[in-house]
Design brief:
By secondary structure, this protein is α+β, with helices and mostly antiparallel strands. Helices cover 32% and strands 32% of the residues.
């Protein structure tokens, strides 16, 4: 009886996870984003650029990696999706708009306890010039902090959480020179957003 109940509960949770995943995917695609799916493996060099609290968390190293470029488990979706952005960004497309999102699992190990954590993450990026109401490109207006903030507010409002989200400037700095702001939901930190330095794009 216990195993049956446990199994049913697990199936219910997994079913709802899939519904939530599909709902989020449908939301972002309706906003003009393209979904990307990256490997759960990455390399230390790229991950360190975007790592926060390196003294608290450490990477999970693979014993038999496919190559030196895939030697650890990812601690964030951000490095992968930024690489997607860079791979699709060129001088020939610099006047266009690139919008990507990804949902996936991330992993890290707590240095103090040795406990391994697995968690789900949502990340989206966009780059390029602003579009007018008739989908024409503005000459000089590029995406800015306000557009990123607006996109996040729209996401939470879609799930009826718009009145509970707050934004705060963060003192945390990435070596990638990301201009960083914290996102809080119900007074708890749930993420961050910022503007990547042009040095990354170049």
């Amino acid at each position: 009886s216990f195993n049956l109940v446990k199994s049913n509960v697990y199936s219910y949770i997994e079913f709802n996870k899939r519904k939530i995943h599909l709902s989020i995917c449908n939301y972002f695609t309706s906003r003009g984003f393209c979904e990307v799916i990256n490997y759960s493996f990455t390399n230390t060099l790229v991950s360190k650029i975007f790592l926060i609290n390196e003294n608290i968390f450490s990477f999970l190293e693979l014993r038999n990696p496919m190559s030196k470029n895939f030697n650890i488990m990812r601690v964030s979706l951000l490095p992968g999706i930024v690489l997607n952005l860079l791979a699709n960004y060129s001088k020939n497309y610099s006047t266009g708009v690139l919008k990507f999102f990804e949902l996936g699992k991330c992993f890290f190990q707590c240095n103090q306890t040795g406990i391994i954590f697995e968690f789900n993450e949502i990340v989206f990026v966009f780059s390029g010039k602003l579009l007018s109401a008739d989908n024409r490109l503005y000459e000089d207006d590029f995406f800015s902090y306000q557009e990123v903030k607006k996109e996040i507010e729209c996401f939470f409002s879609f799930y009826n959480l718009g009145g509970f989200v707050e934004f705060f400037h963060s003192e945390t700095k990435f070596s990638a020179q990301l201009f960083l702001f914290k996102i809080r939901l119900f007074k708890k930190s749930v993420g961050f957003f910022g503007i990547l330095s042009n040095k990354i794009m170049n």
